[in-house]
Amino acid sequence: MGVALEEVVRSGIGDPGWSRRYIRAAVAMDTLSGAAAIQGVLLARFALGIAHPVEVPLGLAIAAGWPLTVGLVGGYDRRHIGDGADEYRKIIHSAAILASVVAISAYVTQTSIARSYVMAGIPICALLTLGVHYALRKRLHRRRRNGECLRRVVVVGHWTSVLDLHAQFSRERHHGMRIVAACVPPDQAGQLPSQVDGFPVLGDFKNVPEVVVASQADSVAVLACPELDGHALRRLAWQLEERGTELLVATALMEVAGPRINIRPVAGLALLHVEHPDIRGMRQAVKSVFDRVVASMVLLMLLPFMLVIATAVRVSSPGPALFRQARVGKDGEVFTVYKFRTMTVDAERRKITLRNFGDDGNGVLFKLRNDPRITPLGTWLRRYSLDELTQLINVIKGEMSLVGPRPPLPEEVAQYGDDVRRRLLVKPGMTGLWQVSGRSDLTWEESVRLDLRYVENWSLTLDVLILWKTWSAVFGGRGAY
Questions:
Q1: 15: Cβ contacts below 8 Å, ≥ 6 apart
Q2: Predicted model pTM
Q3: CA 18 – CA 130 distance, rounded (Å)
C-alpha cells in the first residue's frame, strides 16, 4: 500500500501551480483584449474626426476596469476553470455590469462620447475575451487528457460509489479530477484490494485528514452515504480547513444541474430545494420557435449541397435517395424520420440475419462497427452525420428538435423501463449530449444517462452549447458507424 501511494505521489499528478498560472494568463489576455477593443474604438473615432481628447483617459479607465470587473464577478474563480459554462456566463455578466456603469456615469456627467464604448467597445471586448478563454480552456483540456493539470482527489464513500466516480472521471477527463486515494467505511476497509487502477485504499472515514496529507491531495470528494451525517461532515470540514483543502460533497441527487438546485437555510439546516424540470410552458415554446427558425435558415443554405448528396446516393447504389423510418417522438407519438440512404435497399431484411452474429450495441440498441449493409458512400455520410441533414425537415414540421434525446425505434421503446420512458417527455433531437459525448461508442446505459440528464436540465443555453460542440464531434468523426 505504501509503495502504491509513493508511486502516485511521484507521478506529479496535479501540479499545484497550474491554476495560478492559468489565472495569470487569463488576466493578462483579458487586459490585452480590453486594451485592443478600446483602442480600436478610439482609432475609429479619431479617423472619423469625431473624437475628443477627454476620450483617451476614459478609454484607459474602461480598459483597466475590464479585467477588474471580470475578477469582481468571479470570472477568475478557481472553481470555474476549464469546466462548465460558468466561466463564459461570468464574462457576459461582466460586460453588462461595465456597460451599465459607463452608461450611468455618462448620464450623470452628461458625457455623450461614452455611447461608442457602450455600444461597440465593451461588446467587442467581451467577444475577444470569450475567444481568449475558449482557447485557454481547449489548451487546458488537451493537457488534462495527457495527464497534466489535474486536481488530486481523495474520495470518501462506499466502494461501489467510488468506482462509479472513478469511471466518470476517467471518461470525462476534461473535468481535471484524478483520484489518488480512497477512504471507505470501516466494514469495507479490510475486505478491499490495497490498490485499484492506480489509487490505493488507505483507510476508513476516520483517517481522511491523514490520507490527505500522505497523498498530497488538494480536494476531498465525499459521496452520499449514511455513515457521514451533518456532524461528521462539519468536523471533517474543520480539519480540512487547516490545510486549505477543498471539500466537495455529492448529494444523492443524480444528473441534476446547478440552476435547478437552491439552498434554503431553515432552522439551522441547509435544505436543498430542487426545482422541477421545465418541460412545458413558455420556455418550450421559445425552444420550438428557435428550432424552426434556425432549421429553416440552415435548410435554405444547405439545399444545393443536399441535392448533390441525393444525386450521389442515387448514382452510387441502386435505390432511392431518401430513407424513411418510423421513430417515436414526444409523448410516444410515432413519426416518419427522413435520412439520406446509407445502406443497401434490403438492409432491414438482412438485419435479422446479422443479429445472429451479435452486435456492438448494448441493451436494446443494435449496432455493428463494420456493418456490411452500409454502402461506401454511406460510410462517409455517416462519419460526418451528413445523412441526418434531411432531419431538418422533421424539425420544421415540429416532430423533432435541433437538440434532444436520440430518436428511438418503436421496438426499442417497447423494451423501455419506466425510468427510460422519461426520454419521451421532450422531442428527440438531431444532436444531443449523446452526439457530443461519443456517439455510437457509448454503451446503452451511458446513452440513457446522457438523455435523461438533458431532459432533467434543459435550457436554451445548454442547447446552444451542444450545437457548438456538435461541430467538433461531427468533423472529428469519432464514434460514427
A1: 148, 149
A2: 0.71
A3: 21
